[in-house]
Amino acid sequence: MSSKTHLAFATTAVGVASAIQVPTLSPGLDEVMVKVAYSTVIPLDTYMVDYGRLVQGEYPVILGFNVSGVVEAVGADVDGLQTGDKVCAFSTAGSKAKGLQEHAIIDRSTCAKLPDDYSLEAAATIPDNFITAFYTLFDCLGLPPPTFPSSTSPPHADTPILVYGAGTTSGQYAVQLLVLAGYKRVVATASPHHHSYLKSLGATYVVDYSTIDLAEKILLAAGGRIQFAMDCISAEGTLKSISNVASPDGVVAMLLPVTEGSSHIAGKDMQMWMELPVDRNPFPDSVKLVGVRALKYQQNEYLRNNLMPKILPQLLEHGIIQPNRIRLFDQGSLQDRCQEALNVVRNGEVKGEKVVVKVTSTD
């Protein structure tokens, strides 16, 4: 056990989260130590604090699934990174890799090198959303993994693909990735204030998902029923809407957990499911319904070896993918910043932007 400690923000019991001191570890095989500049708060962080989800009684658990910062130390057999490199990363390895702490130990395969002039604030918005979108489209939906820049049209280039809830942070990356991969008919649903931005990202059609004739407008835009759909909200109501337009032999990917009702934020008395109950499934048996758990993306060997180490750095170096817009919390103590960020996320106050928390200064 290390005698050195550093500050972290963790849940220490159901309903309790606070800044605590935790051991400062050294990087092992295929790991790097990162001085964390920024991290994020996402709905899953609030579920861990408020309901103990994913905690399994093992407290404390540090929060923050995204990391941006500077490499401080490099473990054995690490290729392509060295001390001083700017990076962003996704936490899949428990508390030691989480972002809401001053020093994180990151597995090389989840870590992407940033261009020297890239904003660490912006970089903190990327890992979970980018990975979720890529994994959903090019694994869970069964679309072939693309190469960038795309030189040939993919097999389903002219097939309409629905991104439901495209104004969400993961939806924004899904739209960009589909366009970059050569798909020409991206149908997006979002609230009206996201429409112009989604069109700027390349969405072919954008439909207001609150409109009373939603199904008719989607079918008109698509020219028929939808073969591939990604539900970025994954609530009972959104799945029902997609079921009204999905092809009988279509594939629908839903980001887990699925929430009761129509909101992607689950309130205290609302149910959430990691497996959709049969009596809540609005689709016929012929539709392939896939639940997406982004933390499992590394089970795909190609994605583990390429997505963060190679593909994302290439896209960032060429400036062909846009980070999410930011709502930054950088005032007061780490405790104050994290608590405020948790509150705005659990209250559903953020739309189409990423809640980013400043952890340390890397100057």
Automatic annotation (TrEMBL):
Keyword Repressor listed: no
Enoyl reductase (ER) domain: residues covered: 15-357
UniProt signal peptide: 1-19
Residue intervals passing through the bilayer: none
A single MF term (Gene Ontology): oxidoreductase activity, acting on NAD(P)H
Source organism superkingdom: Eukaryota
Keywords of the record: Signal
Protein name per the record: GroES-like protein
Organism, as annotated: Rhizopogon vinicolor AM-OR11-026
